[in-house]
Amino acid sequence: MTYLANSVEPLDFPIPDGADAEVVAAVTGLYTDGIIARKGAFSREWAQRMAEDIDVAFKEALSRPGGAVGRGPNRHYVEIHPEQMSGWLELVDHPWVRMVCGSVLGPDYQFVELGFDIPGAGAVNQPWHRDFPMPEETRVGGRLTSLAFNLTAVDTEEDMGPFEVAPTTQWDLPEGFDHEMFPPKSAYGRYEALAQRKYPKMGDISARSALTIHRGTQNFSQKSRPVLVLGVDAPGAGNAEHHDMAVTRKFYDSLPERVRNHLSCPIVDELTPITQKHSIEGLMMGDA
Ligand SMILES: O=C(O)CCC(=O)C(=O)O
Ligand SMILES: [Fe+2]
Fold it and tell me: One GO molecular function term (predicted)?
């Protein structure tokens, strides 16, 4: 593939030794398009439980100051603790999730974020963006050091303001970007030409580099389109410090060791509801 003059050029895809076809496809997909997916990874019943957990957490977050943060008109983000989601263990222990994380981030990957976006009725196009600035290791080393997994709580329909992504743009250097995350309006034509709209259904899961330029689009319907976000880092990627995820001792002790090994968050006696940090996204996308 060809890269823009103003983009990082990964020298080669870091495919682990002895990788099977599935691993090759995952690494190649994330290093080329910047987004991959597995249809029907979970049952509809599992996704329905996730939707109910999101609903409970969203109501709780709206009931207190700072519980939910605006990401544009009628659009919220809420960070939660793993124990607020009954299917969290099945999510992080899913063979596809483990395969993708291990293949792209190495064996010592860490779960650093759990949350959800809720674009409600009346949400408008977000500005094209990446979720955080490109780290040095990506810019200089051509390596991806984190992943965002997404799971929809509803079957996505055209009028719900689908997620839109511009494949290959995880490598775009942030020239003229606001806060190194928001490309200038003059570059929108390029993103619109590359754009793909995604129509995931309940039970589907995707994985992307959060650097791949994307946006939620205008929701013309009366329904909201909640989407879960699981953030995973390679060791040292540094995103954990932007999140307040924690687990209770009881929950931690109940987890299999192969999951515990991927948790570096605080282990506490009692969970504190998360107050969302003031973010650049809120500044750039507007309040809810
Ligand atoms: O609407 C979506 O699916 C994604 C929203 C998003 O990218 C964000 O709030 O950062
Ligand atoms: Fe985003």
Answer: 2-oxoglutarate-dependent dioxygenase activity
Q: Which token pair is 272?
A: 């504190």
In 35-106, alpha helices (H): 44-62, 88-92, 95-105
d(CA 281, CA 131): 8
Is residue 80 within 8 A of residue 114, CB to CB? The reply is yes
Backbone φ, ψ for residue 169 (5° rounding): -85, 5
Full-model pTM: 0.96
Residue whose Cα lies nearest atom 5 of ligand 1: it is 216
Q: Which residues are near ligand 2, the ion (C-beta closer than 5 Å)?
A: 131
By the 8 A CB rule, do 81 and 271 touch?
yes
Q: Which fold does the domain 32-278 belong to in CATH?
A: Jelly Rolls (2.60.120)
By most ligand atoms within 8 Å of CB, the mutation choice from 71, 196, 225 for ligand 1 is: 71
Which residue is associated with the tokens 């319907």? 221
